[in-house]
Amino acid sequence: MKEENLSAFIFPSTDAHNGEYIPEHWAGRKWISGFNGSAGTAVVTMDKAALWTDSRYFLAAADQLKGTEFVLMKEKLPETPSITQWLGMQLAHCDRAEVGLDGWVNSQSAVEAFVNELRHEGGVTVRTNIDPLARIWKDRPEIPENKVFVQPMKFAGETCSHKITRIREQLRSLHADGILVSALDDVAWTLNLRGNDVHCNPVFVAYLLIDSKKAVLYINRDKLTDEVETYLHEEGVSVNNYEDVVDGLKHYGEYSILLDTNETNYTLYNKVSCQEIIRHNSPIPAMKAIKNETEIAGYHRAMTRDGVAMVKFLKWLIPAVEKGGQTEISIDEKLTSLRADQDLFCGISFDTIAGYQSHGAIVHYEATPETDISLKSEGLLLLDSGAQYQDGTTDITRTIALGEVTEEQKRIYTLVLKGHIQLSMCKFPSGSSGTQLDILARNDMWKYGLNYLHGTGHGVGSFLNVHEGPHQFRMNWMPAPLLSNMTITDEPGIYLAGKFGCRTENTLLIVPYCEGEFGPFLQFEPLTLCPIDKHPIDISMMSEQEMTWFNDYHSVVYEKLSPFLDSDEKAWLKIATEPIFK
Asked: Are residues 280 and 326 in the same domain?
């Protein structure tokens, strides 16, 4: 920073493709701060350091930042200054203060926001042409070079060439001749290719440039097998080296190009040479969110296999805890091994959250050898996990009573369950947003002055990223419409710091409900198949309608899973799914 005359430097959590989950090569914020959550921004000045992150990570970040210079900044709390406000205060004494950030790992919209806000904080200027990690991170991992493979039609359900044709139709409706596709899951979905470059997410590092006549994949050619090279040629996609994307944009020959400023990094955005840049959301996430019949059938198969693994695990869990010797890490390993026994298993879809008692209150807790604790035959275990199968991605949370639970735990568990059921039962007009429905998950807990600060649900990829948009359930306004054949999770929770946490999550499929003079209405069909623990429920708090939903869901779980279980497992599941009554 001294050499470059910088007063501060900003380290985001993103990569050159603006991903949520990123290759280690770009994990600079984690390296500089020691905080390993998926969301956060680190800022370093000449004499101070701070890290901003959201409520999912308040407890984890506070623990990981202990003993460092980094001060935790809790986003969206009234007392927390924004990054630019904080920089304005820290740099008020500086003459001609300059703030650095790497234009390769910050989106165009992020840089524009920083520039505009810092201009109002005493005229601080921004530089985007420096990556200090290239100098100071001596053992920095290389960009991954793992092989890419084809996702066959029996799982994809639509050819790459047909997807590109549909993308061009969407571009024409937006008066754009082409698009730079930066998001790795969008590249993978469009081309029906998968990879292993990002932990838990079957994507690969590449850009895709589509214009009105051709499509060019920019990728390290060593990643392509002969089979993939032949496949791309047959689908009409040419290949250039990864770093040649800069030249591709400089020599782009069409009149206009669509660039999503939230996905395209600042450096590439400013390399484009054409008459008009159309700033618009990429149409691909909305296209990818609506699953075809083949993908939906794949989800059903994957959820059945995942449910079988979960039943085997849950049957094993309580006796194993009673015997002793089980920890948060050991049960994670057991569950992963049971999933690995299932057909088409390709790995976990995210790092398992196995939080016992107070650890369950840490929303994105991940056990380490230092934090791992033994399980006892009492209290609650929050278990959020999922798997990648080649025909579908799973995401499920169950909160499990390992023995006696307190009245407070029962009340909290039941409020979370009621919220989960109320949202799952909802019938709504097609095109409603997730924000309009989100209150259903929170209404009962609000009556007790309780809430949670994370979103209530997100889309799930088809053997792709476990977090998929643009649709979500959230308190804050998210205008993306909910449409038939989308997947979305339903995962309300309550977390009492230092005590315990509860969350119940199913992955849902949006399906038709009815149609009349007010247009089509939709409803949710649970894709996830796994019993929900009855033991911590306070039955007196449940409505008849909620108990009916609960019993009907358990009836489906038993019907769908029992044919794949042995006699002992089937007997256990029969008891676990018996109806509840007042």
From this structure: no
